[in-house]
Amino acid sequence: MKIKRINALLIGILGLLSVFLLTPDVFAEEVTLPVLIQQNVQGKTINYRLSTQDENANYPTEAENGLFSISDDQSLTIHFAFFKPGNYHYTLAPVEKNLIQAQEQIYDINVLVFYNKNSQLSSVISATNSAGYKVDSIAFAGIAPDKNPANQGGGIGGKTAIKMYPKTGELKSQVSLFGLLLVVGVMIIGGTRQYFYQQKGKSRV
Are 3 and 48 in contact (CB under 8 A)? Predict the structure, then answer.
């Protein structure tokens, strides 16, 4: 009788253990989500800040306290780890926003974590850029340098001094007309003086 009771007790304990082992919280306790971040900023190292207001959200191991950096045109893969279902929200932005194009200065990242049909944790991620458009990838592009010399340094007040000429050739035509009038004037004066001296010589004779 004692042996039967012991066997029954063991069977009961094993049954309870099997129930706990098959619960989702124990069967699938973590899901890891890799996220690739691309950067295209030549000659610069940009610092990034990942922030969240969700108490249950974790920061990736590559972003201690939500901070990390990327140099030049390199990329970085960060790994999010989640231990329970939920809707997690993150904001990713460069610290030096003036070096990044406006529509890529802020990304809103949403991660939905749920149990799939096999009682395993799964995740779905979506991202929106600064313009409010959903994107398939997270990328940060640098601002192209201004090629207009008028907006670059080198002159008074930081502006390049540029000589402004009429675009239609008006100045050139005015100079030519002035020269022609000057020549005609000299010829008229010279001719008048010669005529005056000739008349004066005739009167003496």
Answer: no
Amino acid identity of 6? I
pLDDT over 90 at 188, yes or no: no
Architecture of domain 23-149: Sandwich (2.60)
- Whose tokens are 């749920």? That residue is 114
- For 2, residues 6+ apart whose C-beta sits below 8 A from its C-beta are none
**Global model pTM greater than 0.90:** no
Alpha-carbon separation of residue 89 from 112, 161, 175, 194 (angstroms): 9, 51, 70, 99
Sequence ranges of the domains in the chain: 23-149, 165-205
Q: What is the pLDDT of residues 95-127, one digit of tens each?
A: 988 888 887 889 999 999 999 999 999 999 999
Which residues have CB under 8 Å from 76's CB, separation 6+? 36, 37, 39, 62, 68, 70
Q: How many CB atoms lie within 10 A of CB 104?
A: 21
